[in-house]
Structures are given as C-alpha cells and as structure tokens.
Amino acid sequence: MKALIVDDERLARNELKRLLENFPKINIVGEAANAEEAVELIDQLHPDLLFLDIQMPGKTGFDLLTDLEGYVPEVIFTTAYDEYAIKAFEFNALDYLLKPIELHRLSEAVQKVEEEFDRQKQLTETVKDNTTVLSENDQVFVKDGEKCWFVRLGNVRLFESMGNYVRLYFDDQKPLVLKSLNALEDRLDPKIFFRANRKHIINLKYIQKIEPWFSGGLQVTLRESGDKIEISRRQAIRFKELLSL
C-alpha cells in the first residue's frame, strides 16, 4: 500500500522511513514537511495511508485533514505529544504513535492498517456485486437499534459522517447506519446528492438559500430543518459548475 510521510522534521521522517523498511507491504511514495505540501501530494499520488505529525509550522495535522475533500487516506498520527490522542481518534485515526516511535508499536499500527484494508477490500467486492446507482425515487431499508424505516431517498435532506457510521436526516428522524460516507457517495445519484465537504452530502432539492462563506466557500441553508452546511472552497467550484451559478 502507498504511504505518505508528513512531518516538518527531516530526521523524524528519515527515522520513520528506516523503521518502515521492516514492512515490505508499505511503499513510501513521498514525504512532505508541511500541510500545504501534503495536500498537493495527496491530490497527485492518492496514497492509501498517511503517517501524519500533528504539530507543524503553519497548519496542524488536524487542519490538513479538515482541508481534504473527497479522497481522504487512512491516518496514523506520529507525534511527540500525548494530549491530542482523543482528538486524533475523532478524526478516525487508525493509530496514534508517540515519538520516539518503537518498532513493536509501529508493527501493531501496520497490522491495524492491513486489517482495515482487508475489510475495505471485502466491502468493495460486495459493492461491485451491487453497483446500481440509487435515485431519489428508490426506497431503502434503514435500521437503527430497535427502530426501522423504509425511506424514499428523495426525502433524505442530509447525510453526515460520524466515524464509521453515517447519520441520515429525514422528517424529524436521524438514524445511524454502518457505512462510510465515501461508500454511500458512490451509490447516490450525483445529480441530486452533492458532497459538500469531508463530512456532509446534501440533497440539492432541499437547498433554500446560498451565501458566500469564508475562503471562497459557500454556506447553504436547507429548507424545513434550517440546517446550515458549509460547502468547502474546492467543492464550491464544482457546485457552481453543477448549478451554473
């Protein structure tokens, strides 16, 4: 699997590369000294995995992940500070390695990566067996705990990523389903459902108001609920092209 190392310290990058020589399945395709360089390399190389430092000059590792749109690699944080661990796992990190990195901890992290990629491969094969794009008129069965719904997709105004789950918003309901937002995006009709940012897919027919937002982005207000969703700067370009604004 392709890996990208993001760390502002050259010696730390070299030491991690040395340790990773013990794991032939990890192919280091590049390295970056800051978040800006990393974003460009992620767009170019589409790595499967980031070894990501948190404290860097300029933007932090968390800022980097927030800036990513659409494609987001798996992440193992590498840092000298333990106080960011809880926040790291809010970003769905596979592991959190404290510097100086010990070989046995790196081995545990790599094993988690391999297990996650095996799981994703199985999911991908399942999706390939059922690749029909779902339209707004299709109905889907949703189960959350003891509650069940048979929902017309056109009635879902918003999909929100919650770790390994997605929350669906329709009527006054908001159940969770065990599915990634990326996998769900692959199944939804792109003429109706739009990936607004890393965490949200919106139903275009529910947009009530569009406003300019920070850094060239947009903010949309959804009718009925009044939810305000930010469309990131990168996605705002696609959004304007899609709606010919």
UniProtKB/TrEMBL annotation:
Q: Where on the chain is 4-aspartylphosphate found, per UniProt?
A: 53
Q: Which SUPFAM superfamilies match?
A: CheY-like (SSF52172)
Under InterPro entries, the record lists: CheY-like_superfamily, LytR-like, LytTR_DNA-bd_dom, Sig_transdc_resp-reg_receiver
Domain (Response regulatory) spans 2-114
Positions the record marks as coiled coil are: 103-130
The protein's UniProt keywords, in alphabetical order, are:
Coiled coil, Phosphoprotein
What's the domain of life for this entry?
Bacteria
Under the heading Pfam families, the entry gives: LytTR (PF04397), Response_reg (PF00072)
* Domain HTH LytTR-type: residue ranges: 142-245
Q: Which SMART domains match?
A: LytTR, REC
Molecular-function annotations in GO: DNA binding; phosphorelay response regulator activity
Quote the protein name from its UniProt record.
Answer: LytTR family two component transcriptional regulator
Q: Which species is the source of this protein? A: Arcicella aurantiaca
